[in-house]
Amino acid sequence: MIQNLNKHERESLHEALAKSGQKITPQREIVYTVLLAQRDHPTVDEVYHRALETMPGLSLATVYNCLETFVGCGLVRQVNHERESTRYCPNLAPHAHFRDESTGRVHDIELPKEILDQLTKILPANFETETIEISFQGRTKTSNKN
Amino acid sequence: MIQNLNKHERESLHEALAKSGQKITPQREIVYTVLLAQRDHPTVDEVYHRALETMPGLSLATVYNCLETFVGCGLVRQVNHERESTRYCPNLAPHAHFRDESTGRVHDIELPKEILDQLTKILPANFETETIEISFQGRTKTSNKN
DNA sequence: TTGAGATTTTGAATCATTCTAAACGGCTAA
DNA sequence: TTAGCCGTTTAGAATGATTCAAAATCTCAA
Ligand SMILES: [Mn+2]
Ligand SMILES: [Mn+2]
Ligand SMILES: [Zn+2]
Ligand SMILES: [Zn+2]
Question: Are residues A32 and A78 in the same domain?
């Protein structure tokens, strides 16, 4: 059902892990594969159930561990909305998130560098930003299957 | 220790509650007073302990209830950072939040309308925004007592 | 003054996440 | 080859913010 990682994907997984002294494991490979296969910002539980189809016996704790590892080495971003379960996103380009309240789905919104620059400028001089999160909430109109 | 609400503040509390068919109660008055007295984005627990000094016997559940009520009638905003406890903010002007990772403090950042407009423009045409959240994380430099 | 409905209170329940400790696996030095 | 080391995985318990349930209390219009 789920394709394996291609050479390039496996390479970037290996490289990111190696950079922080960690190894590729079958579990990590599958979890990462699941994230790349369907970029719909799944929760831990969703990742878990998708991964189970390829690797029965995989444990939920391991999915937590893998995702935490990926976040730690910069391969994946966490996406939070209100108090809902944390979601995971393998899109490394700077982007915002739009959460559709009627479907619960989370969409990537491309973020022009120019806007990021402007945002940085509204901060007092002594505020040093490490990360900026922008999230929209609303609804998508019309019969749109996306 | 904590000043009462002034005429204007009590008025806007009453008005906001009335609009959604709810009443002023001593508990709600105190919780709102606590929020206005120290605009440092307190957690529920912090609001609770501050309010206890004025009204011993107040319950934590009531603080949850009051804050939920205020959010519901638009008097107060929730502020979330990662998976930490929800914080509350009575600043109704459009603004972003900067969270200082070294102190844990959350600062209001004034948000030019112009930037909000630009942000809305990066969305696909059929995306209707209800709210936009912008949050910075980083550190404040130098010996700054703010 | 009274009763209906709103609010408060206590304590239990929920549930995503984290923690603990034991089992596992691969790798290397002897 | 074997023994030990260390990172990883696993199952299950613990945590902690938040929500829920039910009973007590309060408010206010009639
Ligand atoms: Mn968020
Ligand atoms: Mn946030
Ligand atoms: Zn994303
Ligand atoms: Zn604020």
Answer: yes
